[in-house]
Backbone:
């Protein structure tokens, strides 16, 4: 694993759920390498976060979501597109 | 289109909230400060390019178009203002301010006048513009260009221009507004030879032009234009070097002074000469990306396989002690910030649907070598890790996954996924390689690419469209067919439902396939749907090839040409068809799941179970299910795509294949065949607003399903079942790519809640 010395960085690694990460990697491998799907991309937020961001956008200035093929600040989207992102199916393993 | 004040959203407010320190993130203080600079500036309009184009075109009336275009591009680059900000190491901003767009007046003049007043205050993607510039646009540039844009010229030559921009059934708005787009430069070659290498080759070829040979007509203009454009880029680099030296003279901090002097030395050398170091190489790549974004109006100017063509420089610098991984990552983060800095300039109507300024840059890592071995290296990891630190919307970062890709690299990518930004995208190398084998080649042909070229230089462009660096040119996001509307036409004897907005409500918009109440079998209904679909594809294609012809004649792009293999040798602009593989105009679909689910519901309820009559269905649809909720719930209970249920997945696979074959049967103006895709950003929302109720149980004007994904909330058997459904489609027939969204709950992946 690549280790880097970045003492000034603002980045803090989250506490991962190892079983979930393993399932995620398996899902990607299976969908692409086994089923031959060309491309897949993920939103990995909780629905409550998005719902709260609609109600209190000022609290989420840098919250990003994947719309389709690109990432964008959630607050910058039109309400109908926000609603569509929220209405997609939130999968669990 | 306006949102209510209580729920006000849009980039105008978003930028206010992000202003100041909220986005001050990155692996070093330098990157944090540059990120802050990015977010404390509102996107703005610079009319430098517009002035150059108007000036050159007015001075050359009646001269060949290629001469005028090349001169105008050269003039733009030669006189671009060299701006260097505090903290930066990479030189190059495309405008006189941060987040500045050099509008392509020759594409936008027809709609711009109507949007100018609200440009600064519009809710989605507002742009700042100086009063004087605004007035100059209104008085000088728009009057000169408004009847010369691609859209304006095209509208005079085709049968149904309004239908093709606003019917909601099929449209080519994105094609008409974005010539100069969707391209992966041959960066490996550029880094090895510099622009000087291209210049020298042009000198050699120009000497062989024979004025008595009819094949060489126009080539003198081509070569003299290429010389002028490449010299202009050299001049621009020199002006950056001079500016860096000027700043160094007054700089009091010795560290910053040394950085500025280093920048000056780098700009003295590249992009004209071959790069010798990682630092020089990344500068060449960035300046080129920036210039392409000025030259072309369109999106998806793609970095391609950055970890491959940059690795030789990285490896040598590390070995010789000139570079550390941390320093390389810092440069990559700076390039991500600068890439995000380039906004996409669109009309207010399009900004509502595609808001966020995003211009679809794309950078990928991993994949295979041309000999079929795992290609990943330390830079693959650094490119993914950099995004965790810098957190920019652009570029789209991708992992090209193969069975040979190490799990460690997939884990690095997965950790980026956990960040919740939507980065990275994941691609299957074998599948996009197969798409490239058939790219542009029609139903029975093969593309000109060899397997080695595909493995070495192949990668997705923009969102998901397969391309090969330096060997492919053409628009890959051109036309779109709404499969939901197609189903609707089959249930209305070709008439667009009267309650819909846009072109032609209540008018005949497709073939008269008969009153659906008289369809005796599912086969009759099925055939009516496919007849409508075939007609929509052919009508759209007929309109786009006219635009394609106009582009080849009037929208030449010298820098794209110089960065393509073989075009300088041929002496022909790449837009006119000199690429190794011409592609597009392409056709994509929206609403795949809506069509499959609608057809499955009709098949099951009307013709198999016979629990609903066609008359009841049509009556309920006409009423948008008002008073027919019970029937709607029956339709919702019918089999739905995305649950590994063959009943409906077979239909999805069949219409997917039918669409692919119809599109690949269409021959384009430059001789290639069209390619099918399913990808279009949030078109499912905009097209949904123009689609009546469907037999899938979806209400009128609600969003369609996005891209090739299952319909919202209908994939209820977990991600593996959804994945099995998707895997039934024949991807190699979708030669322009497929996009799949999936949402995995954050609680599954990490314990910490971000934000």
Residues:
């Amino acid at each position: 694993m690549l280790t880097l010395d970045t003492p000034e960085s603002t980045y803090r690694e989250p506490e991962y759920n190892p079983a979930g990460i393993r399932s995620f990697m398996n899902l990607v491998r299976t969908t692409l390498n086994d089923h031959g799907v060309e491309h897949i991309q993920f939103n990995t937020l909780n629905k409550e976060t998005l719902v709260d961001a609609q109600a209190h956008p000022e609290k989420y200035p840098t919250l990003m979501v994947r719309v389709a093929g690109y990432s964008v600040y959630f607050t910058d989207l039109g309400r109908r597109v926000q609603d569509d992102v929220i209405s997609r199916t939130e999968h669990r393993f | 289109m306006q949102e209510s004040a209580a729920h006000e959203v849009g980039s105008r407010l978003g930028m206010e909230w992000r202003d100041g320190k909220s986005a001050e993130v990155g692996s070093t203080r330098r990157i944090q400060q540059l990120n802050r600079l990015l977010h404390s500036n509102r996107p703005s309009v610079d009319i430098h390019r517009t002035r150059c184009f108007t000036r050159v075109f007015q001075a050359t009336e009646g001269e060949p178009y290629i001469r005028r275009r090349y001169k105008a591009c050269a003039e733009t680059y030669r006189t671009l203002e060299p701006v260097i900000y505090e903290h930066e190491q990479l030189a190059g901003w495309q405008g006189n301010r941060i987040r500045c767009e050099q509008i392509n007046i020759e594409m936008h003049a027809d709609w711009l006048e109507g949007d100018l007043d609200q440009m600064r205050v519009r809710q989605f993607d507002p742009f700042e513009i100086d009063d004087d510039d605004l007035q100059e646009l209104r008085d000088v540039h728009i009057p000169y260009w408004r009847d010369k844009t691609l859209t304006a010229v095209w509208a005079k030559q085709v049968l149904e221009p309004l239908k093709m921009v606003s019917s909601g059934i099929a449209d080519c708005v994105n094609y008409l507004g974005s010539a100069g787009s969707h391209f992966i430069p041959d960066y490996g070659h550029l880094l090895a030879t510099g622009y000087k290498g291209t210049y020298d080759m042009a000198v050699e070829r120009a000497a062989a032009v024979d004025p008595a040979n009819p094949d060489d007509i126009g080539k003198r203009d081509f070569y003299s234009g290429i010389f002028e454009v490449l010299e202009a880029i050299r001049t621009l680099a020199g002006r950056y070097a001079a500016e860096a030296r000027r700043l160094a003279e007054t700089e009091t901090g010795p560290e910053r002074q040394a950085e500025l002097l280093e920048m000056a030395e780098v700009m003295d050398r590249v992009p004209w000469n071959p790069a010798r170091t990682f630092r020089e190489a990344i500068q060449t790549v960035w300046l080129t990306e920036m210039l392409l974004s000025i030259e072309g109006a369109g999106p998806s100017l793609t970095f391609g396989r950055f970890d491959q063509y940059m690795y030789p420089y990285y490896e040598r610098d590390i070995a010789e002690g000139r570079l550390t991984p941390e320093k390389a990552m810092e440069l990559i983060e700076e390039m991500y910030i600068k890439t995000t800095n380039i906004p996409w300039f669109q009309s207010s109507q399009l900004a509502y649907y595609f808001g966020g300024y995003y211009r679809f840059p794309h950078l990928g890592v991993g994949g295979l070598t041309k000999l079929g071995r795992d290609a990943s290296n330390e830079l693959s990891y650094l490119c993914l890790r950099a995004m965790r630190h810098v957190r920019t919307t652009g570029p789209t970062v991708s992992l090209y996954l193969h069975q040979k890709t190490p799990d460690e690299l997939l884990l690095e990518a997965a950790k980026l996924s956990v960040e919740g930004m939507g980065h990275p995208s994941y691609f299957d190398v074998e599948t996009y390689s197969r798409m490239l084998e058939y790219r542009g080649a029609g139903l029975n042909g093969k593309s000109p690419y060899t397997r080695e070229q595909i493995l070495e230089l192949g990668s997705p462009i923009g969102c998901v469209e397969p391309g090969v660096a330096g060997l492919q040119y053409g628009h890959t996001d051109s036309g779109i067919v709404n499969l939901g509307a197609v189903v609707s036409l089959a249930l209305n004897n070709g008439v667009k439902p009267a309650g819909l907005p846009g072109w032609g409500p209540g008018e005949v918009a497709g073939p008269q396939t008969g009153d659906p109440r008289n369809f005796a079998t599912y086969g009759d209904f099925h055939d009516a749907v496919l007849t409508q679909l075939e007609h929509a594809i052919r009508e759209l294609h007929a309109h786009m090839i006219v635009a394609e012809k106009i582009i080849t004649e009037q929208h030449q792009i010298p820098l794209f040409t110089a960065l393509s293999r073989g075009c300088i040798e041929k002496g022909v602009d790449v837009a006119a068809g000199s690429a190794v593989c011409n592609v597009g105009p392409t056709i994509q679909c929206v609403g795949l799941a809506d069509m499959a689910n609608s057809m499955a519901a009709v098949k099951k309820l009307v013709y198999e179970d016979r629990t609903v009559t066609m008359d009841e269905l049509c009556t309920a649809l006409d009423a948008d299910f008002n008073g027919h909720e019970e029937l709607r719930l029956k339709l919702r209970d019918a089999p739905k795509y995305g649950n590994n249920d063959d009943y409906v997945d077979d239909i999805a696979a069949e219409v997917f294949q039918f669409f692919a074959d119809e599109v690949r049967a269409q021959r384009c103006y430059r001789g290639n065949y069209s390619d099918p895709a399913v990808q279009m950003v949030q078109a499912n929302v905009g097209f949904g607003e123009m689609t009546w109720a469907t037999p899938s149980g979806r209400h009128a004007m609600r969003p369609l399903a996005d891209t090739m994904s299952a319909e919202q909330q209908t994939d209820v058997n977990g991600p593996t079942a959804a994945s099995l459904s998707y895997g039934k489609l024949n991807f190699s027939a979708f030669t322009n790519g497929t996009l799949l969204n999936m949402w995995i709950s954050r609680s599954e992946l990490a314990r910490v809640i971000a934000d």
